[in-house]
Design goal:
By secondary structure, this protein is mostly helical. Helices cover about 65% and strands about 0% of the residues. The relative contact order is 0.07.
Length: about 70
Amino acid sequence: MYASEVAQRHFSAAVDEAETAGLGHEVVCRALLSLVISKYLETRSVADIQAELRFVAENCDPDTDFMFMRP
């Protein structure tokens, strides 16, 4: 089993539960993001977390290709 599979299973369950409770997925996504950041702060610097979030934000467009360097 991969970490992404574990995360996807729990994420889907949280979204489904939020939708069933009438909360909507936006609220639960925001809450999960906050929990992830809090967990990261236990072992990572603020600057490191900001850099990772910035990278994700700058590369979240599914219609944009990633540029890879080739030797």
